[in-house]
Amino acid sequence: MKYCRRCVYPMRAVNTMFDREGVCSACRASEEMSKVADDAFWTRRREVFERLIDGYRRPDGSDYDCIVPVSGGKDSYWQAYLMKQYGMNPLLVTYHGNNYLPEGQGNLDRMRDVLGIDHMVFGPSVPTLRKLNRLGFTKMGDMNWHCHAGIKIVPLRVACRMNIPLMVWGEITWTVAGMFSPDDWVEYNKRTVMEHDLRGFGWEDMIGGDEGLTASDLTWLRFPSDDEIARVGVRGIYIGNFFRWDPNVHAKNMADKFSFEFARQPFERTYRTMSNLDDMHENGIHDYMKFVKFGYGRASDHSSKDVRDGYLTREQAIEMVRKYDHVKPRRDLERWLDYVGMSEAEFDAIADTFRNPRVWWIENGEWWKENVWGEPSSYGPVHPSPGLDQSRYVKEDRRVA
Predict the structure, then answer these.
(1) Exposed, middle or buried, 292 (CB in 10 Å: 0-12/13-18/19+)?
(2) How many CB atoms are located within 10 Å of the residue 254 CB?
(3) CA 217 to chain centre
(4) Could you tell me if 1 and 401 are in contact, meaning their C-beta atoms sit under 8 angstroms apart?
(5) Which long-range contacts (CB under 8 A, 24 or more apart) does 31-34 make?
(6) In the predicted model, is pLDDT for residue 83 greater than 50?
């Protein structure tokens, strides 16, 4: 593995690329943004935003002006608050995956009260969600696949059914991977949702098999047709195109204004307590699976962002990675195993089949990888699994990442 010389991202993390100086595309995009994004830049962007939303405003108050997809987290609080500040009449739409932390559920429940906004919450049946947790894990090593799918598809279905053409999303990808420049005006589209959020899987891939899901169980997972979207003229914009995006600032502001609550108990795999309260497994075993697959985790994500925004030095970020990235979260894992009816031995055996051979090698029956601090380490035993081809993990035969 190769690591960025400015942050702690490894090569190929969330589609990052490295330049000749060993700096990742996310850091370069952040650098580019810092050079151009002065107060005048954001003033021009805000003016574009104002003109855009004015075209969707219903002056007679006959219907909602837009849909704001929300999880109840710090960023979605800020998105909804911003739309109210601009005099819009939004409808909040939430996909509920049944794994909220108590404080996350409390934040979600308070939104319509403290913000004064109508709120629609959709949740599939719990038996269906349990099956989708197992399917996501066994098919792609991601038990939270249903969450990525639900939050991106359900609001679109609501927009089409209720004839509300404007959807207002939050963060855009340049803050994560550097895929876009400040001059790119990123908008929601079905292709990127399918390729990135859904990993190329659709509702039809979840039908039948051992779980026995039917088409009627997954009605909510189907995209509206292109004709339906065109009829309503649905458009999904990202607030990150128009306003400075800083999750640390959002969290503080929403806590001050609306008593937004952070996690009461520290997470086992990251130092932040303000993020991912809508799914207790996002910072837990879902993120542990990212470490298993790609050799980095949520502490790398959070600390890399905080390095770019000036909250941490690279040396401090490395210590966060050293402390958190490898941790197998016990309380989180036990809850999920009980939820889906799986043993830990079965979990470990399936997890090992998703390890990337460009990251991991097997030595003396244990998993090894390179680290950002420059020394390789072992990270536990190889678990017996008929689906694991150990011949792919010979150290000398690994391809260069």
Answers:
(1) buried
(2) 24
(3) 24
(4) yes
(5) 32/181, 32/182, 33/174, 33/182
(6) yes
Whether pLDDT at 36 is above 90? no
Per the CB < 8 A criterion, the answer to whether 383 and 345 are in contact is yes
Instruction: Give the chain's domains with CATH numbers.
Output: 13-34+262-397 (no CATH), 37-241 (3.40.50)
Task: For residue 346, give the amino acid letter.
Answer: E
Other Cβ atoms within 10 Å of 354 Cβ, number:
18
Residue 400 has pLDDT above 50, yes or no: no
The helix-helix angle for 102-115 and 247-258 (nearest 10°) equals: 70
**Average pLDDT of the segment spanning 219-226:** 96
Buried b (16+ CB within 10 A) or exposed e, 304-332: bbbbbbeebebeebbbbbeebbbbbbeeb
The CA-based angle 244-249-250, given to 5 degrees, is 85
Alpha-carbon span 319 to 29, nearest angstrom: 24
Q: Token match 């702690």: residue?
A: 8
11 CB neighbour count, 10 Å cutoff? 17
Residue 12: alpha-carbon gap to chain centroid: 16
